[in-house]
Amino acid sequence: MVIPYVVVIILFSLGIYTVISKKNLIKMVIGFTIVESSLILLLILIGYKPSGTAPILDRQYEIVVDPIPQALALTTIIIGGSVTAVMLALVIKIYKRYGTLNVDELRKLRG
Amino acid sequence: MSKINERLKKLHTIALVVALAVFLLVVVYEIHNLDNNSKRYLSEHYISEGVRETGAINLVTSVLYDYRAFDTLGEATVILTAAAILSLLVPVSKATMLGTKFSIIVYQTTKFSIPFLAVLGVHLIFFGHLSPGGGFVGGVVLSIIPILLTITYGVEFSESKLKPAKKKLVEDIGAIGFILLGLLGVVTGSNFLANGQANFGPGNTGELISAGLIPYLNVMIGIKVGAGLAIIFNSLIKEK
Amino acid sequence: MEAAVWVIILPLLTAFFLGISKLYFKKILFPLVTGSAIIYLYLLISVSTNSYPPKVYSVGGWGLLGINLMVDPFAAMFLLIIAILFLPVILFSLKYIKIDKHDYFILTYLMIGGIAGMVLTADLFNLYVFLEVTSLSSCALVAIKKTDKAIEGAFKYLIMSTLGSFFILLATILTYHLAGTLNMAEIALEFKELPFKLKSILMALFVFGYALKIGLIPLHAWLPDAYEDSPIPYNVLSSGLVMKAAVYALIRVLYIIFGIDFLSESGMLAIGVFWGVITFIIAHLLAFQQTNLNRLLAYSSIAQIAYITIGLFVGTDGGLIGGSFHILNHAIMKGTLFLVIGIFYYSLSAINIKDIKGLGYQFPIISFTFVVASLSIVGLPPFNGFITKWLIIEAALEAGFGYAAFFILVGTFLSLTYYLKVIVTLYTKTEKKIVIKDPGLSLRLPTIFLGSLCIVFGIVPSLPLSLINKIPQFLLDHSEYIRILLGG
């Protein structure tokens, strides 16, 4: 049961690495989506129970997984998607103004 | 000189991220050692009493639209905010067409699949409290229709069929309707966004008209999310 | 307590209706905005005066099973700040904002709704959701002018605040995993049995995430850029409410969930005070070099928020009272300063220090307001800034943070130098004839109102203090808060 958590940590760290090290703005945004996915995976993991069914009780089930993290995951997806959309819009704007997506060149252009 | 500097900077970043990863590993290790699987009384309550209290078979829906409906209001607001920002940042000037011309197969398939998508989306919304699905998922499926139109026929055609102002109106109506449905709880003497507690008639669980207000809340969120995502997509693609 | 939930949904409803009015009835903007602002003022005042003893409002009527809102004196104080700032800023922006008026008001109302949600909620995940509403709409307001600087500032702001949100979300998820609930009171009870190490790690995640949002040095880089080219009425709300809301949420999480005993045991209080001292010294030094008035005030905001952090992290009754009172005072003082700058910008687009030369004779009353507010923010008697700084210094001395008290005095001199520079420029006579656009009464009145509050709260501090004095009772010792939230 530890290996999935390690995957979460690897994804989270990779995402953060992408955000702080990549020069390309689009890649930075991709980094954010990676971090967000790792958090959603973490939410699914903490709700998981071995051999549990989905929390839809049309019959009596023995083991049902935790419904709260799934609801939280839905919220997180929606918020993450909205934030990504706004980021991309700003990136497009920046590209239109300066004609480049590279952070270093942007800094040079600004002076 | 600058190359060495860059190397150093990269090493610095990697060290930082590795430190973060180790830190998180310690967290996981500590949590794993703790072994407290018993502390889930809230979700156990939802699982054992949720169907009776809210009338919805789908527990995720009952959490989203009843127990934690206030969160849903918040996230609906987030989508609305994002749609507002995008329509603000994008100039209304000229929409661009995608350059690609598709073969007739693509056009015909798009036309053919739209009714199915509409039925699927509406089904997901209306049966959200009975089966996997719900307002968010259904809304996303519904928003695929304008997105497909945009991709195959171009922005101009898509927006002549579904006017941006209409979509914005639908989105606002969805958000206002959600709050008004929430206020029904206040009117009937219970609290804001009350459903299970306000006795709107849970009905026979498993039927379409059951679970009180949850289906209607689903509809509101469904049209809101569908319209919002369509606005967001079209705004992003419009930018030349 | 129906009013508590109206505090959150009225701004949201207004924003949604504004969205419809943008499409079909452009004319009703003015009555809709002002009417809702006036009703909101009444609501805020009635909620915040009814905050003692604290009240719980359960959304959906589920009690501990659902989301609860809690109005305690700390929240009431924050609602009072919204009440003081909101109507003047709305009246100011009605004339000031020329383009994208509808979008500006939609986003402002969404932001206010998000802030009210952050202030009132007693649920950890709900806090995160409203945090996102606030930061997303706030970021959009930075970009609203669509100039190069504005877009860039907004992008930086969004990157940093999203990074902060991820850490907060991670901590929230882990908290749910460990406690099995999201209600703050229940989490606090569960956390009492948690091992020390695990708690410290969770606390570190929360603190790092919120520090990014607050802009403590070295995580402040986005903040001056975000202020530089944004609409000035928004700057008032941003420095007065958005940054403060992050401070508020951090304090709420630390004091309620972790408890004061754990904070002092783990050394968090000492770290917080030390961090605050470093932050305000560096921020003052950086502010000294600025030529753009917006950036100068942004750095000054960082420094002032560091004072607030020190006050709130001292960990005594006096510190909490001083820190929370400084939240109120700083909102008023910085609001006045920004509005004055806004008037200068409106009439002759002056935004650099050298542009405002000689304006002291053209705008005698407005300039005098600026002098009052800047002397107050420096911390000179008899204005309100002096009182709160005094309270913070006193609390720091009492709690054994002598160095913090000393450095606050040093910081006062540092801030005096750069504010004096601005004031002297303001009253330097020039030969140049300046053409001005008349700002009119609707820009002057809100400014003068906020400026006069600087003097009123300086002379009669007992007015807000009667509310603020009750804050430590429910914050310093979290057992009272927990008991009320659990419904005891």
Describe the protein's architecture and organization.
- Chain A: Belongs to the CPA3 antiporters (TC 2.A.63) subunit C family.
- Chain A: It is found in: Cell membrane.
- Chain A: It holds the Pfam family Oxidored_q2.
- Chain A: The chain crosses the membrane at residues 6-21, 28-48, 68-92.
- Chain A: Keywords: Cell membrane, Membrane, Transmembrane, Transmembrane helix.
- The complex is a heterotrimer of chains A (111), B (240) and C (488).
- Chain A has 111 residues and is an all-alpha fold.
- In chain A, 74% of the residues lie in helices and 0% in strands.
- Chain A is built from four helices and no strands.
- Chain A is elongated, with a radius of gyration of 19 Å.
- The termini of chain A are far apart.
- Chain B has 240 residues and is mainly α.
- Chain B has one domain (36-238).
- Chain B has nine helices and no strands.
- Chain B has helices at residues 2-34, 41-54, 59-67, 69-89, 104-126, 135-153, 155-161, 164-187, 214-238.
- The longest helix of chain B has 33 residues, at 2-34.
- Chain B is globular and about 75 Å long.
- The model of chain B has no long low-confidence stretch (mean pLDDT 82).
- Chain C is an all-alpha fold and 488 residues long.
- Helices cover 77% and strands 2% of the residues of chain C.
- Chain C has helices at residues 2-23, 29-49, 73-96, 101-120, 124-142, 148-179, 184-191, 196-214, 222-228, 232-265, 268-288, 293-313, 317-348, 359-362, 364-378, 384-398, 402-426, 441-459, 462-468, 471-475, 478-485; strands at 55-59, 67-71.
- In chain C, strands 1-2 form a two-stranded antiparallel sheet.
- In chain C, helix 6 (148-179) packs across helix 9, helix 11 runs parallel beside helix 17 (402-426) and helix 13 (317-348) packs antiparallel against helix 18 (441-459).
- Chain C is globular.
- The mean pLDDT of chain C is 88.
- Classes of the chains: A mainly alpha (111), B mainly alpha (240), C mainly alpha (488).
